[in-house]
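wait is this the right file?? whatever heres the structure
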């Protein structure tokens, strides 16, 4: 009688057959689990940031320094970018309006409503996500890979309280101020474009017909939400950096992408809620 030995993994590999690889469903499940874990960690960072912002201790002048970094250093970039976009948007609105009704008396009213409700806050936040978000992630990521964050923990200092909270408070304050300024710049570059391209006088262009309390509240809510999301998401990406300069670059890229995605998602949520609450 011949007894057959059980075939082992080595025996399988010896016959030239590779071990089975996980399928697409397993890869999708792993990606979903990783996304859920990242979301849970981001939520933890956000909650702790709110706690330390309300009850934590802050170094004197830390918030003012971050306000300068977030606000003053972004002013020229935001003014030039949104000023140019304001000219483009006004020109395109005027062209489309001429195809329907060749009357530009309501051009300023439509444009101002778009600025107050959505365009200034959303476009301004996307610009800030590229500049401010990348800066926060690069700075904190460099501290992580050089073990400065570990040194803070050894000194019984929470990195969230010491690093994220000042940037969070500065972003809340300066994002609103920058977006208001950007809206002002967009409006006047749009008014200049309407006058040059379509002959609309500034007095006619300035029209508050379509601007109501709902538009103002929606715009302010977006400013607050974007100002809170950008530093938290960017700081979380910086804290998750690893390795050397390559890890810092990866964290910076991830911060820009995730901050921009957060702005888009928040824009959709707030706009949807405003549609049901204010009907606009």
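ok assuming it is, sequence goes like this
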């Amino acid at each position: 009688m011949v007894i057959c030995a059980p075939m082992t993994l080595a025996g399988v590999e010896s016959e030239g057959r590779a071990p089975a690889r996980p399928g697409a469903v397993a890869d999708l499940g792993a990606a979903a689990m990783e996304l859920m874990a990242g979301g849970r960690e981001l939520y933890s960072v956000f909650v702790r940031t709110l706690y330390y912002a309300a009850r934590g201790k802050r170094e004197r002048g830390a918030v003012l320094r971050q306000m300068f970094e977030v606000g003053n250093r972004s002013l020229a970039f935001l003014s030039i970018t949104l000023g140019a976009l304001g000219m483009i948007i006004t020109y395109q609105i005027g062209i489309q309006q001429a195809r329907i009704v060749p009357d530009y008396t309501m051009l300023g009213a439509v444009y101002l409503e778009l600025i107050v409700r959505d365009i200034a806050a959303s476009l301004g936040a996307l610009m800030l996500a590229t500049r401010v978000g990348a800066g926060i992630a690069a700075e904190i990521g460099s501290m992580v890979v050089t073990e400065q964050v570990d040194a803070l923990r050894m000194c019984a200092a929470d990195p969230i309280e010491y690093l994220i909270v000042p940037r969070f408070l500065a972003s809340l304050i300066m994002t609103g101020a920058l977006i208001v300024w950007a809206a002002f710049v967009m409006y006047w570059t749009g008014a200049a474009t309407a006058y040059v391209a379509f002959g609309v006088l500034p007095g006619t262009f300035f029209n508050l017909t379509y601007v109501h309390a709902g538009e103002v509240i929606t715009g302010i809510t977006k400013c607050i939400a974007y100002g809170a999301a950008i530093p938290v998401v960017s700081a979380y990406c910086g804290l998750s950096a690893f390795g050397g300069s390559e890890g810092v670059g990866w964290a910076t890229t991830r911060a820009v992408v995730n901050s921009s995605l957060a702005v888009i998602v928040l824009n959709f949520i707030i706009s949807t809620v405003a549609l049901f609450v204010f009907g606009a």
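The CA atoms of residues 133 and 148 lie 20 Å apart. so i think its the right one actually
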